[in-house]
Amino acid sequence: MTEVDRAKGSGGVGAVLRREGLYSSVLTTWRQEREAGTLQALTPQKRGTKSHRYPVADENQQLRRDNLRLTEELRKADIVIDIQK
What we know:
4 helices
């Protein structure tokens, strides 16, 4: 559609239609759909569910990872202290 809209001069639109193998009636239908807003519905959409990022949940997850790491370090330190006794 944008290429046809940019085609200027006599025969510009016809040249685009011939090159793409389209009829002028198809172009007319597409223009009517674009004006009605239905052509926008055919544009590719990003698929899948939208992810909802929550900063509190991200921080919670980071704190849980830190807690696990520190718990493991404490366990190792306790083992070293027990060995030294």
